[in-house]
Fold this sequence. Notes:
The protein is mainly α. 63% of the residues lie in helices and 1% in strands. The chain starts with 8 loop residues before the first helix and ends with a helix.
Amino acid sequence: MPRRVTLTDRQREALLHLPVDQGELLRHYTLSDEDLGHIRQRRRAHNRFGFALQLCVLRYPGRVLAPGELIPAQVSDFIAAQLGLTSDDLLLYAAREETRHEHLADLRRIYGYRSFSGRGARDLREWIAREAEAATSNEDLARRFVAECRRTRTILPGSSTIERLCADALVEAERRIEDLIAHRITPTLSENLAHLLEDTVDGRVTRFVWLRQFEVGANSAAANRLMDRLEYLQRFDLPADLLDGVPAHRVTRLRRQGERYYADGMRDLPEDRRLAILAVCTLEWRSSLADVIVE
Length: 295
């Protein structure tokens, strides 16, 4: 099974942190006249401040405030200046948890924010399943997911949920790609590819390992070794649509996997994955050898 990758602390922080850069504050935390109208309906200064803060954090990074979360001075100063308040006016807001929950409910009603549950969560799971094929990494997919949650005004789930969703989606995407490639391979081609793991060269290494062990040389012997490998690879009748619809980074990943495995390891893989790797390596090595020989 493909290895599941989680986010590092730095990557997680980058996704969920509150902005402190002046440009980011201007872009994400500037309050509109409509916003100010809703905020001013709160009577006390600390409630106006807290309501505005929750609104800003819902918009970016798209989550709710954690209990007791430390608010950067840049954030509190920026919001306070727009409300005609001081940063100290926020201090009393954390004292009554019920008020924070009431404000969050009001913000969801006024601005249409929804939790990650029910139909909305199902839609996002379907979205991330599709998006995973184009994503280049767990971090890339997590960034896309967070951006989609912001676009749909879905309050971000916890970081562990985001990581699990991304890891599961990437694994399933990898399986779909392998299945797509494998089902384009004819029975005859499948049998020929299997020989790469069974046949040996000079009784020492499998044909699969021999094919990937090529180096550019300056003499005729080196050129002949390259030609031998290219001529062997050209025997394979690979379908023209073998990689249609497969993102380039997925092709690169399959090739790199093939270049790490020895024959025994390849034989232990699920059939679709093994066939996909063998076919991709055959096509990619053939192209690389042709380029080297032409040069």
